[in-house]
Each structure stands twice: as structure tokens, then as C-alpha cells.
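Morning run. Coffee first, then this:
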Amino acid sequence: MLISPAYAQAGGAPGGDMFIQLMPLLLIFVVFWFFLIRPQQKKAKDHREMVSNVRRGDQVVTGGGLLGKVVKVVDENTVQVELAENVRVKVISSTLSDVLSKGTPVAGGGGGGGGGGKADPKTDSKADDEGNAAGGAAPAQKKSFFSFGSKK
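And here it is:
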């Protein structure tokens, strides 16, 4: 006879193959965790922290790419942004994409009279325009962050 008989071979250990088969899937999950999921969670946490720390006077960039200055924090979800002189819009805080520069902190009250102190920007929104006229000096021409030429 030219054909030899075929005999069945013994099966391998049932528990060892399962671990070896799952090893590539576990490795893929670990790679996705360290290169995709973890950095994305960190970036989202940093963005939430940035949005919660936005205050009046900060220069911000909106999600649409508009540059503006925060003039009022309405609540934890909404801020009022001045895009140009006398152009103010309400913006959802989570749509702010970046804070370019932090504003200077507002000086806390302390002037009980005397007329020589600075006006409080919280209560007097036109402190720069009209506040200097009371001292006798003409108000200086303001240079805006958004002006592209000289105004005359």
C-alpha cells in the first residue's frame, strides 16, 4: 500500500491557548489607552480648568476664531466678550478655545472719598472715558488690541 493511515493528534492544553489568543487584544487596548484615551482626558480636564478660571479682563479666543476681551462673567456657563469697541456678545464658556493673556486683577475698593483714586471698573464701565475728565486732563486716545491703524 502506498497510503499510510492517519492518526488523530492529542489536543493542547485548553487554558493556555485562551490567554495567548487574548494577549494581542489586551496589548491593543493598552496602546489605545496610553496614546489616545489618556491624553484626550488630560486635555479635556485642562480645558475645563481653563474655562472655570476665566475672569474679567482676559483676552480670549472663541471657538469660531474671534478674539475678544472678557468684560463680564455672567455665570459659570456664560461670559460676555467685547469683540470691538461697544460690540459685546454673550458666549458659552465651554466654546472658548484659548485664553491668550490674563487680565490684571481688579483693585479691591479702599478709596472712601477723596476723588483722587481710580474708578472701580466693575461699577463704572466708562471709567476710562469720563473718569479722566474730572481731573482736568483730557482723556488720552486709547490704543486697542484690535485696532489696525491710527484713528483721527
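Confidence is low (pLDDT under 50) at residues 109-140. Good start to the day.
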